[in-house]
Amino acid sequence: MIEEKGILFILSGPSGVGKGTVRKSLFDKDTDLKYSISMTTRPPREGEVDGVDYFFKTKEEFEDMIENNKMIEYAHYVGNYYGTPKDYVQKQLDNGNDVFLEIEVQGALQVKENFPEGVFVFLIPPSLEELKDRIISRGTETEEKVRNRLAAAKEEIEMMDYYDYVVVNDQIDTAVQTVQSIVRSEHCKRERVAIQYKKALERDES
Ligand SMILES: Nc1nc2c(ncn2[C@@H]2O[C@H](COP(=O)(O)OP(=O)(O)O)[C@@H](O)[C@H]2O)c(=O)[nH]1
Ligand SMILES: Nc1ncnc2c1ncn2[C@@H]1O[C@H](COP(=O)(O)OP(=O)(O)O)[C@@H](O)[C@H]1O
Q1: Rounded to two decimals, what is the model's pTM?
Q2: Which of 75, 139, 160, 179 has the smallest C-beta neighbourhood within 10 Å, fewest atoms?
Q3: Closest ligand to residue 82's CA
């Protein structure tokens, strides 16, 4: 059966919930998904590589991309810009490949406006206490930034209503398996399979 367009998957949720951890583990298992590397003005953390973890840009370079309409979405998050460049995502979807975005909530809502057919997955922590522990234990933030991220998290969790799926990231393996099942299930959606069959039948008859 010929795949038409790829599916756009959006994984979002509060900072520190485990989006990056879930995404990396998912990509170790599911090589068919294409990951869209984000652009950011945040300085690289130790061990982060330009073009692998993020495309690290200056504020001017980022604003230039925005002005030239080259971003699908972007957000100003805890003092820095983060965003998804348009070209890569569009090209992969057009080639029939599934694309996976891992982005914060403001950006996900913008994607929803432009790609309403996207599949929106919201990752939540088992509790706010656990979320705080995860942000602290990661050790990448100052005390003030931990407070900022937790304050943002409370507002972000209220946006759950805009999502198609909600996954609790309690045990990492279970959360990854659940996201993987969502990806598989979306490929079995009746509308999607029916369209592909119809097209294949039409080709057969002509
Ligand atoms: N809107 C948007 N958010 C992004 C993008 N890339 C990463 N983010 C989010 O920006 C937030 C901060 O990312 P980062 O500084 O790497 O910290 P961490 O994810 O909390 O480790 C996280 O919630 C990311 O998921 C993007 O392209 N667009
Ligand atoms: N299911 C989980 N159980 C315990 N710790 C987790 C789990 N998922 C992620 N973590 C830890 O929580 C911290 C934040 O995870 P990270 O993937 O950086 O979050 P995000 O990308 O959402 O900001 C990291 O130290 C990570 O190892």
Answers
A1: 0.91
A2: 139
A3: 1
